[in-house]
């Protein structure tokens, strides 16, 4: 919760009273490993903050599952397009470990914004973070090698290799697990 308060007071320059008002609206959800926070076809009516644990977001088709995001401790998690449009999501968000999140509903968040538009600063902060992460990933697929994408994921998600199975990381990078092993080996040899 300290990290969320720091976002309010230090990053966004909001007062502690606004943080306390926001905190009163938060609810806790505990997830078991492999439990879904949301599944494809549901409307996302929440924004959550990961307090502990690791989650992944993935899309699925008849060829398999494809990871498109990870959520580590102190990161916001949501099927954000669905949250904004209030239309069904096309992704799944699953706990990779036991996890705990604090969440606020779409209705509660909009109610806070209506009462005090300073909460728009938090909404912008969350949107900006999602946008920047998505743009970096998209650009990396167009410009970078798999090895460079691996470096990017290490920067975007510090400590991810200790928290997420390699086959999930490989899926996020758009490569096979054995290719990831080769890249890591070559990186190690070339150091």
TrEMBL record:
InterPro entries: cNMP-bd_dom, cNMP-bd_dom_sf, RmlC-like_jellyroll. CDD domains: CAP_ED. Residues 13-113 form the Cyclic nucleotide-binding domain. Gene3D superfamilies: Jelly Rolls. It holds the Pfam family cNMP_binding. This is Crp/Fnr family transcriptional regulator. The lineage of its organism: Bacteria, Pseudomonadati, Bacteroidota, Flavobacteriia, Flavobacteriales.
């Amino acid at each position: 919760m300290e990290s969320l308060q720091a976002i309010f007071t230090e990053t966004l320059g909001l007062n502690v009273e606004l943080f306390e008002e926001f905190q009163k609206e938060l609810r806790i959800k505990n997830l078991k490993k492999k439990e879904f926070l949301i599944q494809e076809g549901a409307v996302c009516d929440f924004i959550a903050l990961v307090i502990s644990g690791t989650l992944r977001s993935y899309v699925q088709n008849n060829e398999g599952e494809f990871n498109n995001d990870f959520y580590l401790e102190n990161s916001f998690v949501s099927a954000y397009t669905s949250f904004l449009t209030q239309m069904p999501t096309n992704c799944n968000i699953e706990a990779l470990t036991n996890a705990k999140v604090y969440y606020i509903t779409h209705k509660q968040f909009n109610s806070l914004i209506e009462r005090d538009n300073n909460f728009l600063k938090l909404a912008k902060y969350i949107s900006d973070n999602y946008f920047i992460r998505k743009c970096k990933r998209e650009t990396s697929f167009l410009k970078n090698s798999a090895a460079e994408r691996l470096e990017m994921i290490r920067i975007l998600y510090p400590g991810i290799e200790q928290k997420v199975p390699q086959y999930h990381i490989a899926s996020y990078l758009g490569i096979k697990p054995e290719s990831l092993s080769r890249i890591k080996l070559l990186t190690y040899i070339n150091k």
